[in-house]
């Protein structure tokens, strides 16, 4: 690693460790420990319910943080000459690069064949779909990617996939985990079969609790019953 990059990385890590935690609970000069208490040197303890709420409202918190961060960058005069009128700052800062997705798409074609993961028929143009929807788990993970027809992808949208798809996905995780690890490493994505499995278990359990529906095929849905959860425990 470039030595100056290593030094920058440790400076950024020190700032993140010191600043957000010191200032996150300060309002108008008063500290309100509504999120966490300091419980020792370098340790915090979250208040009851905070972990649940952070998970539950992750998307909302993330959107607000990103919007404010973009405003902050645009408001800095020194950035004006670099940014110009660029309207794609959000994409540039936060989205998985198209190049990474293109790499994943090509690798998935080799791994699974040029067919749609959901309906099984051949694809010419394929989307790289997040099996557990990105809106539920906004991180790119190689194990969570499958190839899909653009139409199947649009129809599934932000919905969890129904049982036959889940069964195939779990089997694929079990049998192709090494290959998926390689795809993740190639595209520079976070990568971990166990995490993918846990995220799915969490997402389906939440849907089961709230009476959610799962997507089977265009306009066909079924309720997420407890039999789904049995699959994910195995
Ligand atoms: Zn399809």
Please supply descriptive tags for the structure shown above:
single chain; 234 residues; alpha+beta; 3 domains; three-stranded mixed β-sheet; 11 helices; globular
Low-confidence stretches: none
Largest sheet strand order = 7-8-9
Mean pLDDT: 88
Q: How many distinct beta strands?
A: 9
Give the strand content: 5-15%
What is the string of SSEs from the N terminus onward? Answer: HEEEEHHHHHEEHEHHHEEH
Radius of gyration: 21 Å
Outline type: globular
Question: Helix content range of the residues, please?
Answer: 40-55%
Please give a quick description of this structure.
The chain is α+β, with helices and mostly antiparallel strands. It contains 11 helices and 9 strands.
Account of the protein in words:
This protein is α+β, with helices and mostly antiparallel strands and 234 residues long. It has three domains: 1-49, no CATH class; 57-95; 98-233, no CATH class. 54% of the residues lie in helices and 14% in strands. It is built from eleven helices and nine strands. A three-stranded mixed beta sheet has the order 7-8-9. It has a two-stranded antiparallel sheet with strand order 1-2. Helix 10 runs antiparallel to helix 11 (226-233). It is globular and about 60 Å long. It starts with a helix and ends with a helix. The model has no long low-confidence stretch (mean pLDDT 88). The structure holds zinc ion (ZN).
């Amino acid at each position: 690693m470039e030595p100056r990059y290593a030094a920058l990385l440790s400076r950024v890590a020190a700032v993140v460790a010191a600043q957000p935690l010191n200032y996150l609970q300060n309002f108008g000069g008063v500290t309100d420990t509504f999120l966490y208490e300091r419980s020792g040197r370098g340790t915090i303890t979250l208040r009851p319910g905070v972990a649940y709420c952070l998970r539950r409202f992750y998307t909302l918190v993330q959107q607000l943080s990103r919007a404010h961060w973009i405003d902050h960058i645009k408001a800095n005069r020194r950035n004006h000459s670099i940014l110009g009128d660029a309207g794609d700052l959000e994409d540039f800062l936060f989205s998985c690069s198209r190049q990474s997705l293109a790499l994943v798409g090509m690798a998935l074609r080799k791994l699974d064949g040029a067919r749609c993961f959901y309906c099984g028929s051949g694809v010419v143009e394929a989307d790289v779909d997040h099996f557990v929807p990105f809106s539920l788990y906004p991180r790119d993970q190689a194990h969570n990617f499958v190839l899909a027809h653009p139409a199947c992808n649009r129809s599934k949208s932000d919905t969890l996939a129904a049982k036959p798809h889940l069964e195939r996905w779990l089997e694929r995780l079990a049998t192709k985990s090494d290959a998926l690890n390689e795809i993740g490493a190639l595209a520079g994505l976070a990568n971990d079969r166990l995490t993918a499995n846990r995220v799915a278990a969490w997402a389906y359990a939440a849907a089961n609790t709230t009476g959610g529906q799962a997507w089977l095929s265009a306009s066909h849905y079924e309720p997420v019953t407890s039999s789904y959860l049995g699959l994910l425990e195995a």
